[in-house]
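Database export, one record per block. Field names are fixed; values are copied verbatim from the stored entry.
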Amino acid sequence: MKPTIYDVAKEAGVSIATVSKVINNNGRIGESTIKRVLAVMDSLDYQPSGVAAALAGKKTFTIGVLVPDISNSFFSEMAKLLENNAREAGYALIICSTYYQIDREQMYLDLLIKKEVDGIIIATDPLNIEAFNKVKVRQIPVVLFTIDEMSFSTHVVTTDDFRGGYLAGRYLMENGHRKITVILEEGRKNSITRLKGFKEAIGEQNVTLSENQLYTSKSSILEAREIARSLLASEEIPTAVFCFTDLIAMVLIKEARILGISVPEELSVVGYDNTLLAELCDPELTTVAQPIKELAKHTIDQIVHSISYPEGEWKRIVLMPELKEGKSVKIIKEVKID
């Protein structure tokens, strides 16, 4: 049975009120009494209840993080960086992966509310806005991470996805590619913004995309594999494919190799995120690099600030992506673009 505050009080020979004062570091208590209570807590392995602390109006020093799929290399790498930054700020993270399922989304939001987390970082596009409104009603500080949900007004930390899509499109245009296909990431609204930027860039060179040049896949190996096989089995294979995550791009390259299609000689591929997968890919992947270290730092800084100053004005932080050139794109013809 877990030790209770009553056990600590009995063992230390003090009142429950004295133990509570030691835990909360308030009231006038002698140094010897404090040391005795702390020693008993240590010997009994007593852990004060975070929920009880929250009910007393105190912080639990926990932050919830809602991501769409932790197996996506971008979110797994971000989770590590968020955790490191949170630890430096004195907070622990509770990371929840919804896997794009509305029931999981609601279940985890309810869980985080019950855990009395001090704040929530949301990196998944809301499937049920009513579930998110529960968080709003309880005035729990929220930061939207890599998403910009207009129906949920709060702090935002993200990357300029239009710019990211534009950079990928311009790069393919500069290298002479005109037969292009796109694989969007299903379930992510920022895919639409990236697509708009991409279309803007290629449209400047009078290149357009038809519906049959647009594919959609979740950023999972199984689904990306099916989409890659479908694309590579089409009657006319493009010279280049812009994939909206590095994971989708890497799966496409692997499936092309299985079919004897050489990358980049016969098929050029551009990814998005600049995760560790981009560097490990063979050939090294050309990708749109998100500034993940800066994203993580700004996100934790913002949520911690919001916890301390909940009445502060909402901030929208938008960072700029860059194109990182690897070896997965062939130069068909160098085209100078002003």
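Remark 1: The radius of gyration is 25 Å.
Remark 2: Residues 8 and 41 are 6 Å apart (CA to CA).
End of record.
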